[in-house]
Specification:
By secondary structure, this protein is an all-alpha fold. It has one domain. The protein is built from 5 helices and no strands. It has helices spanning 3-56, 61-78, 83-97, 105-108, 114-127. Helix 1 (3-56) packs antiparallel against helix 2, helix 1 (3-56) packs antiparallel against helix 5 (114-127) and helix 2 (61-78) runs antiparallel to helix 3 (83-97). The radius of gyration is 22 Å and the shape is elongated.
């Protein structure tokens, strides 16, 4: 084996290493975007339901159960990325399973607004790989 062969082998290894790193970054980026997508779905469906409530003033237990599940799915997706935001999604899911919980003392001090949730997802987007 010549010196040129050694160099080619080293360059090939370096190229494979760079491709491997790029694939890890892309995988991490897809995970982040999937989590943000789950939160966005939960938040936009929640906003839509709240708008319907303001217009009709009639609650829909089936829709509230659906919102609860969406927030739990968002919690699962965001947990490895931002455990604090995952906790907020978990609370939102719990509260939609019983909307009276939104008014409990326990959750009055916890920031749960949709604006807050979107603000936190923007921070994740800004830090994304």
């Amino acid at each position: 084996m010549t010196e040129i062969d050694d160099i080619r082998k080293g360059v090939g290894f370096f190229k494979e290493f760079v491709e491997w790193i790029e694939s890890l970054v892309n995988k991490e980026k897809r995970k982040h975007l999937g989590a943000i997508r789950a939160i966005h779905k939960a938040a936009t469906d929640t906003n839509s339901y709240l708008s319907d409530l303001r217009d009709n003033k009639e609650s829909n237990k089936e829709k509230e159960r659906e919102l609860s599940l969406l927030w739990y799915e968002a919690m699962e997706a965001i947990q490895p990325i931002n455990p604090e935001l995952a906790e907020k999604c978990l609370i939102k899911g719990q509260c939609w399973s019983d909307p009276r919980l939104f008014h409990s003392e326990k959750y009055q001090v916890v920031p749960l607004s949709i604006d807050y949730i979107f603000s936190e997802t923007r921070k994740i987007l800004n830090k994304m790989p």
